[in-house]
Amino acid sequence: xxxxxxxxxxxxxxxxxxxxxxxxxxxxxxxxxxxxxxxxxxxxxxxxxxxxxxxxxxxxxxxxxxxxxxxxxxxxxxxxxxxxxxxxxxxxxxxxxxxxxxxxxxxxxxxxxxxxxxxxxxxxxxxxxxxxxxxxxxxxxxxxxxxxxxxxxxxxxxxxxxxxxx
Amino acid sequence: xxxxxxxxxxxxxxxxxxxxxxxxxxxxxxxxxxxxxxxxxxxxxxxxxxxxxxxxxxxxxxxxxxxxxxxxxxxxxxxxxxxxxxxxxxxxxxxxxxxxxxxxxxxxxxxxxxxxxxxxxxxxxxxxxxxxxxxxxxxxxxxxxxxxxxxxxxxxxxxxxxxxxxxxxxxxxxxxxxxxxxxxxxxxxxxxxxxxxxxxxxxxxxxxxxxxxxxxxxxxxxxxxxxxxxxxxxxxxxxxxxxxxxxxxxxxxxxxxxxxxxxxxxxxxxxxxxxxxxxxxxxxxxxxxxxxxxxxxxxxxxxxxxxxxxxxxxxxxxxxxxxxxxxxxxxxxxxxxxxxxxxxxxxxxxxxxxxxxxxxxxxxxxxxxxxxxxxx
Lengths: 166, 376
Known about the structure:
Chain A has three helices and five strands, in the order αβααββββ.
């Protein structure tokens, strides 16, 4: 019995030596080939030639009253890359959903900024969405609260801020 | 009266509840446990859910689902799993999803992917000491590669009776990577090492990404022909992705086909979890050795990265060696999380993705070595 085990272990050691050697040799060959990729295919971008500087006098531009607002999503710190992707996709998906819902209402067409302040009147949106991250659909729940959203994902709640900038 | 007794006994013979054994009940509980882990804890749900629920189904007596020649689960296992069609198609889909860019940008990552395979051999030697034969030990060791399809592919060829145990161990521990790896990494690295920042990777051109799968397939295919099916499939899938001219094929391989074969893989493996074959001391040993395999693979990668630092001018964060176990992308994410814990501005995810995908190639090569030395 012990002899059998010893024989098997010896064979295992032989396989280990061969296996480790083969894996390192093959992957080293691949590494060497790939190291050759860099000089062959990769060219660092040349620094751009200095261009003649044309001085342009800046004219003060009057801010248009109805200029569109850019939305900046503010995520809580310490998130994993997956959580960042899911929360960003969830908020963007929610904004799209909300926009579509309000599109049919004449009042919001006339006053586009109104949708950002209707929560003052106690009207808030909540939606269950499926966001696709890396080709996988993930269910999330987004609820609008003053100054941002509460996103529920995998039983956890995240507070996501939204800043409107011109 | 005699007729009534005959009818009753015939009926009794066909009622499952009267035929159920303690083993069946234990397996039903194990199956439900896997379903719980998948649903509640989100542990590899795509594979553990079908495996778990199929394990429950096959342990209901008299269903005939696994009976040759026409039982449905028998047909699935016989024609799709035993013939290795499903694991190879999974590799095709995997290839269509993987980005080898970080590996091409930093070819040294390949060595870390190779180093992590040491765990495979450590687990194999331990299995031999515990009395498993060489073929069984190789099938157990490959769990350390943290690559489910490769584990299944090799086990079918070398030790098909261990298929359920090795597959469940591989997929369960893959989902437990965030618990298994951090203590090993922290044990083997200092705080200073974990804070090492790495230079940003260079951009990789489309041309390089197209040439890489072709060259890898040819080199590995010529040197270890028995690894060619696995490497070939992953590289074909990757070429679909990187060529950019067969978007429909890429999508089909990585989405529709991948989903279909995952279902068959899950129910095929689940169908092998019958009480009489699964409830053995060997299964417990396989599960125990699986953890050893994962932990030693992690250690192998980290220690080799530290070794590389002794000879290299540009220091690498040794934690990225742990991503050499091919659980893509979990182990790379674990490394990224640990790096951020030490230094919130140290983002090493892309550096960790290099060894991570190198691990996939490394595990396939090891499987090929096992097959050529031990026969299929």
